Amino acid sequence: MAGVVPIVPPRTGTMGGKLQVETQRFITFDELCSHVPNIKVFFDELDKKDFKYLLIDSHGRAVMEIDIEAASYIWQSYEAPRGGFAYKLDFDFGRRLPRMNLKSIISLENCIINIRTKDFPRGATVDLIKNEVTYVHDSLWVLKGEGCAKEAKEVQRVLNWLVNDKKLKITAPGGEKHYKELAALIGGK
Amino acid sequence: MKYAMLIDVSRCSICYSCEMACKDEYVGNVYPPFSYSQTDRQPAWISVSEIEKGKYPHVKVYAVPKLCMQCEDAPCIKVCPVPGCAYKTDTGAVILDPEKCTGCKACMKACPYDAINFNDDKNICQKCTLCQHKLKEGKLPACVDACPSGVFFLDEESKVKEMAKKRGARQMNPEYKTGPKIYYVGLPSISLAGHIIDAHSLMDVADADVAITNSKTGEKVALKSNQSGNILATYLKQDEKYSLEIKCKGYRSKTIADIRLDIEYNHLGNIKLDKVA
Amino acid sequence: MATVKNTNLKLIDLLGGVFSSFSASESLMKSITHSEIEEIKKEKSFVACTLGGAASVRVKNGRVIGLENLTIPEEVRHFKIEAHGKVFEPPRKYLTDMVGHSYRRWVYDPSRLRYPMKRVGWEPGGKGTYDNRGKGEFVRMSWDEALEQVSREIKRVRDDYGPSALCFQDTFHQTWGTIHGMGTCYTIAPRFFNLLGGFTEYVPGTCSWAGWVTGATFMYGYWWTNGTSEGTDSLADTLQNSRMVVFWALDATKSTRMYIGHESEVWRHWVNEAGIKTVSISPELHDTAVTHCDKWVAVYPGTDAALAASLMNVWINEGTYDKEYIKTHTVGFEPLKNYILGKDDGIPKTPEWAEKICGVKAEDIYNLAREWAAGPVSINCHVAAANRGWYGHEFTRMMVALQTLQGLGKPGVNLTSWGQVGAAPFDKNIRMPGYATGVNPAAKNLYSNPIPQKIHTLEFAEGILNPPVKWTGGTTGAAYWQDESAFKYNYPMKGYSEIKLSFRCGGGHFVSYSNTNKRAEAFMSPKLETTIATTLFMEPLMNCFDVVLPACTDLERNDISMPCTGGLYIPYLGNCNHQMSIYQEQCVKPLGQSMPDMMIFYNLAKKLGIYEELSEGNTEEDWIRKLFQVSSLPEFVSFEEFKKKGVHFFPVPEKYEATPPLSWFYKDRTGLATPSGKIELYSQVLADRWGENNPDIGPVPKYREPQDGRNSPLAKKYPLVGFFSHPKFRIHSMMENVTWIRDLHKVPGDSGHQYEPIWISAVDAEARGIKHGDILRVFNDVGQILAGAYVTERIMPGTIRMYYGAFWEPEDPTKPGSLDRGGSANVLTTNKPMSCHSHLHRIEHMMVEVIKQEGEN
Fold first, then answer.
1. Is the ipTM of this complex over 0.95?
2. pTM, whole model, 2 decimals?
3. Which of C67, C743, C794 sits opposite B42 (nearest CB)?
């Protein structure tokens, strides 16, 4: 179709307003708190229980809003491979880095939190999207079976809350077994 | 070809590239038959002395590179007890043969310029060889090549002497009478400086004619103020009285009498000229 | 000719050298053919790009034996500038400096780290002991062990605490390279950490440009180049059109050498040969002033803005400023005028007023002001010392204001710093990547850091030792500086971890940052479970680390670069006499087991399963080839030929079109990156953000009295104004171990220890019974150091000068405030930021006192 130029919207000009784009990205702690209410609730409960925690990884698809503030643009059409036309839209913001905000989270692949106990920075790891406990600190092994040491009690306290109150499933390899051993040795809540 | 060298002290950037280039050329490197490795620690075979004269705020700094003078009438050659150890090459440079040297230090004691160093590791006396091994390949000595400021002018002796004469260059300590082959422009000397300005506008007066007269002998030095109104008269005599007269078109002449040169760098400060009414 | 009689001596001399522990004689004893020996014995020459710019390296027997100025062939067309009846043409050699000429001494120094080491008592897993950090007790490790333990440790910390517990710190300045050296620090290393999920960024701030980044930018934009306007073509502009050149707070010969050598020194001589007036404004009679300047105007440190204001006072009162230009090219002149004439505060900023503050006699101020107004003036003041000290941002704004009143962009009226930002003619169409963009132009994928948490260098010590901390602003002058200065930060951020592991690339650097003792205390704190550094040397600072990994210098690996340019904030602007690209061919094998920077990360990446993404399958040669492809080089030369020659010179275009600095603005009257597009003598942005009455900053440039300066209560205890400049005999703290350079300037003590010199005026020395060569204790509330007295008339009474960057050698590194024998000036500086709006270092100026240190030193 060489020689035929398709009609396109105005080729160049200035745009204003806001542009929304969907993208894969890491999600920060503040963004999780403001956009995913049930995750915020989880964090608040952790705060109340006095459990310390750290965000390890959170990745998902989100809508980012970009403040255009008068950027020049240009529509370009070019020949696509194997014939026909393809279209490209270029923005030029000049030297000013445009302001960007996360507008909404479409989906989260994961949200991995480490919950620390007094003695172990990584007492248990949870994935709040899969609702799973993906790692349990093997406190009994570390303590080489010294019995009901207070370190092990701390891990058990966290696991109890995760399993019984928050209804998370332990998928960590050997995690279920370890939890049962702790429960047997220490007993109760 | 016999070489001589002219050094322009006023151009020196005090960058020490020459000293470092000398070290880089010679430390850990041998260039038979002229030299063995230079010591890792100081000194190099060229050294730059920063000499300060004057008193704040009128200070003059002379950065003087010093090397072996490659003397025409070298005392080191005269006193060396080992035959053929200290000799002159066809370039006019003086070489201390590292093979033959026994480390007796007689040359060091005899050299009035302190140009010879003792290498503790090798137990020999060493000094600048005017980079003989480089000259033989048509290359410049390391210090000359390294200098970014055009301080060193190395050429055939008669050309250097001609330039020295033109520029009023002098040998260092000519009273030693060893026939040094290095001529210096801008060595420290008893000096008188000043800054000539318009009494009203306080701006610089360039191209003013200045005559400095020794009150005792009547000797006169004539100069012009430079683009910034500065004047500098050198090689005057300490503790002798001078008078200074300034003449400039559009201005009344000014004379300053009874100037005593108390220190080595004397500065008259701002000298104000009044315009002709 | 004398015959060689002592063959043993000769062989050792040929192969060894007095400071070598590398035994080349051993390798020659193995079976090797005669022709192979002959090949090795031949002297080879390589083109290199060093910390002193381009150079020609001599290699023999597998060892570097010397460095020389690189020659530029006759066929390469270079520039000629006609001015004042003369033709100025550069020499056909690249002028390296004392750094270049002593390079091999640096490369082969016995303190080179040759194998990985770990501190005795350190164990991975945070289980070791910490009380001997700083004591320098190390054991050797194999690379296998080192890579295994370091990678496991990185993984452990990341898995336990999250990636925010990793803190990667670059050193801006170490070896030259686009892939290795600084290129690794800027691209490969952060890429490595980003692939692991990110890291807490250690924000270094820009020590050398602080005042420009947070001052001048508000007047004329240019924040993408750290607040320095282009210096392109200012060489010809100045030679042909300027009546006077002013070096303001800039020892150009010293300060513009870094990575460039003495290329621009020739230009300063041309200024003298052209008969152009020259003035140096500085508290010291520095080398540039000695060699090149007709006048030395001595100003107290930190008072330059007052002097500048008084110059403008004279011009405004006498009407000797460009009134038309003010109307057409600027906004906000009235408020500035009101400040200068004293209409707002009742204090006219006359020379008589300035004299009391800055120490320059009023008569000399009138002379300077009237000479300045009589014709175009070029100021060399970028990177100037005053911009990194008390209210540096006011100094830079005053520089812009001065030139604005005289028509900035008019022929001969420019603001520059030769060497650092231009200014010789060059081919403007040449693209060449540099360290700031590193491997990125050749990478398929780029990875950004998703961790929002940062820690600023000024808050680092407090943040590690006593968190939480918070601050406003303070990153390097990136794309959005004007907004950035208002960003609020806190550490640690909710949901993110405190730093547990610190990885430093390029050795210790905290002698170049504020409050060295406090910084070291933080580094040695057990709160940092593991500290790792890649380094060239086992310098004293390395004692603070747990694991040290040996990197190699730029002569020991392959790379590609252009001298005098880094890309991004230091693009090539005609910084040297000849524009060239260099294939940095490996001259000699890495010493011992040292490794090129990128390979250290490659090897760690293999252990951590991110090698494919990090390398994209590229070897060192692949990256070099790809960077070659994105540059302009393929238009002129094939890769093979470029590699063989080692260098390609770009001739100056035959028909050269000069674009002197801001001449385009002079013509267009608009287009600057300011809200109005013009020069903003009054900045609405600053007024809106900080108001009119903030003590640190306001919309109009002003002289501001520092709260801890010579007129403050602090001065009663510590009466001497210390100014701590960019070092002459080092590049920050690099070259500090080079004996040849140390012997040039260090002051020997009785014990043989070499002390860092301190310049003290004859008047102050006499008052304290101090003689030249005495060892002094220099102290204030922050710390104390020892230094060797250099009594001189070359600085103003009431001031002392030291160069920062000396090795830090405290008597007891585990005790904060311990006496530092190395003479590291930043032991005396504080973490106090430059101003409420400028969260950057102000380490040029501090009040101190000195006293003779009795006893044997």
1. yes
2. 0.92
3. C743
